[in-house]
Amino acid sequence: MQNDEATKKHRRDFLALAATATAGLGAMLPLAGTAAAATGPTTDFTRFLDSIPGNHKQVTDWPDLNHGMGLIYTLSFLMTGPEAYGVPATDIGALLVIRHKTIPITLNDAIWSKYKLGEVFEIMDPDTGAPALRNPYYLKPGALPFAEAALQKLIDGGVKVAACNLALTFFSGMVAKAAEMDPEAVKAEWLAGVLPGITVVPSGTVACNGAVGRGCAYLFAG
Questions:
Q1: How many CB atoms lie within 10 A of CB 186?
Q2: Where are the domains of the chain?
Q3: Angle at Cα 179 formed by Cα 222 and Cα 175, nearest 5°?
Q4: Residue 136 DSSP SS3
Q5: Which of 6, 95, 106, 181 is the most exposed place for a label (fewest CB within 10 A)?
Q6: pLDDT beneath 50: ranges in the chain
Q7: How far apart (Å, rounded) are the C-alpha atoms in residues 42 and 26?
């Protein structure tokens, strides 16, 4: 029992420290978007932003799991946008920014299993009710009732997905420290484990900022 309590306390301390360290990032986020011409130097990051298709575009900011609502908000925009605006589906573009405590959603099952990310981030497997040893939101939509909301299906449907490099660095470092491993080696393994179709960007906040600057409406998903 004492070991169980110690483990639970470690998880709580881990997540509390992470939240404290990144709490200030939320204040930096844009609140609304207006179309603006892209200016300045061209980089891999700006080219990624410019690849968001359509004249009607949304960036969904997803820092906390919130029952998977980042996936649902993205899906609902894709489903309802064409009829609402009277345009073809190809004129609807979406960017999903995965940052802060949702960052494990960008990683493959091997990373989830090796580093016990379900325990670390307190994400349950909907099939077992236990801490997830696989990514429950990639091939399936977690506990959500909409199969089309699975991350892989959104990517296959043309949604652009950004993974926050700051979050990858911070959380891989925290996990490495707890396991007495080399932070750089763990970070490199996590980067190699980022799922296909997901682009690692300098930070989730700059991805939201850049997307709004390119005409995306901003939506906070929790």
A1: 22
A2: 27-108+135-220
A3: 20
A4: coil
A5: 6
A6: 1-4, 6-11, 13-14, 16-37
A7: 26
